[in-house]
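Researcher: Predict the fold of Helix-turn-helix protein.
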Amino acid sequence: MSNIQHLKTIQEFHQTRGLPSPDHPLISVVDYSEVQLQPEFFDCSWTLDFYLIALKRNIGGKVKYGQQTYDFDEGVMFFIAPGQVFRIEQPTGSSTERSGWMLLIHKDFLWNTPLAKAIKQYEFFSYTIHEALFVSRKEEDTLMDLISNIKREYHANIDRFSQGIIVSQIDTLLKYAERYYNRQFITRKQAGTQMLEQFERLFTAYFSDDIASEKGLPTVQYFAEQLHLSPKYLSTMLKTLTGQTAQQFIHKKLIELAKEKLSITKLSVSEIAYHLGFEHTQSFNKLFKNKTSLTPLSFRKSFDLN
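Model: Structure tokens for Helix-turn-helix protein follow.
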């Protein structure tokens, strides 16, 4: 099993990547072409005590996005939050062609600013590396302007305005990233539709193969693992396609299945609840009434099965 390398400071990151010491201990913009990737980097996993936002170009070969693989010549963005475990993919292209930037932000730099809390609300920090954000040349230029502003500001003489100005640039960068992710979900609708079809098949199999009796109620985590997606990414994709989060969508499918069993079978409510994975019948009754304004028995009576 591979070991995990833990980097606590931006200084340590610079040292392990063969870079000169950072100009600021809590924030740094790194030229990706200057990063020295040693062979041992690919034999372990990494975790950081700071945020890493990167845009890389010419990373070599194909890029896997969800269940699909694409050739993509434009920039690829990744977002890594403190404490996340990740691996560096072995590059397959020429290292001399690599380009892009990495923005490193220590948590302490955001202390006592609105962004310290707001940055945790951006779901793309919970996506995995194969759910990267692809940006066009025009979008990349917009982001590069912000990165250049950040770099210029912390290279200048630090004063009482510096932190606020830099934080506002980071906040703007994240808002643009959110916009571009939303665009990506829309433009890759075909891949999303295929994912939705797979989700539907997995949901049907969960009950037809009696997985519910072993695992209980179906969870977002279960479907995310089966689809090789992170739970956050799956939820965002479903929200774009259906208007519902993954949890809401699962509940909708559960209620549809419950209605079917209540209307065409004579199974008791407790038997139906058990078949759907509920540990307690009361929990099933509560969810059903919350979603339909009726109890399961009231719904069944409308079909005169009892």
